Amino acid sequence: MTETAESRIKVSRDNGVTTVTLNQPERRNSLSMAMLETLSEVLASLATDADTRVVVLAGEGRVFCAGHDLKEIREQFDRHEFQLALFERCSAVMQQIVHLPKPVIARVAGVATAAGCQLVASCDLAVAADTARFATPGVNIGLFCSTPMVALSRNVSRKHAMEMLLTGEMISASRAEEIGLVNRVVDEQVLDDTVYRLARTIADKSSHTLRIGKEAFYRQLDMPLAEAYDYTAKVMADNLQADDAQEGICAFLDKRTPEWKDR
């Protein structure tokens, strides 16, 4: 069968929640150049899709994502320009997730390793089945997980990140929750119920407010304390001029449900 963008990634929509599923279980949903290009195109389209309020990122089969396609990398051993382009493309996709003006929830069933673990860490939220496992095992094959390290080290403490990176050992879902890599761990049988209940809760909010909040969250992280407060004070003052902020405050005081205009 000829590989197409549609065969690499499935997209489904339900009441404001769009699910993006890596759909190559036979390749362990690896992040080949083709997969990364398709994922980038999908994310770009969702950024401006008014019907998408929350994105759920999933993987088909028993592996969420095994990272880069090592067979593809081996075929390109003598092409440094391809290798650089691959890691730059992957880095750009991870930043697309961070900068997407919609919350992104990773639905993790199975294994997430190397760049697959990076994918989980790049999402705003992550819910994992209790059978899920995580690792940054590049050190085991002589290729340190340097780009996955960027997302990992921004989600867990330095020592926890370094332990994963230096040992390459697999950690359980419960350990991933302990160190802050995922938000929740649930029985696999209720994974979808938990993910989509969370997604619908968020989707019920003003999409305009969510966009403002997500952007501000990531921007203030790297600022000095005083600069972060100056920046977020302005964000809140500007946010207060929005229709939805004024509607939400009035609805709260009037003890009624707000009617969002998403502006």
UniProtKB/TrEMBL annotation:
Molecular function terms, GO-annotated: hydro-lyase activity
Keywords noted in UniProt: Fatty acid metabolism, Lipid metabolism, Transit peptide
Gene3D superfamilies: 2-enoyl-CoA Hydratase, Chain A, domain 1, Lyase 2-enoyl-coa Hydratase, Chain A, domain 2
Signal sequence annotation: none
Keyword ATP-binding: no
Biological process annotations from GO: fatty acid metabolic process
InterPro entries noted in UniProt: ClpP/crotonase-like_dom_sf, Enoyl-CoA_hydra/iso, Enoyl-CoA_hydra_C, Mitochondrial_ECH-domain
Function as written in the Swiss-Prot or TrEMBL entry: May play a role in fatty acid biosynthesis and insulin sensitivity.
Family statement: Belongs to the enoyl-CoA hydratase/isomerase family.
Name by which UniProt lists this protein: Enoyl-CoA hydratase domain-containing protein 3, mitochondrial
Source organism: Marinobacter lutaoensis
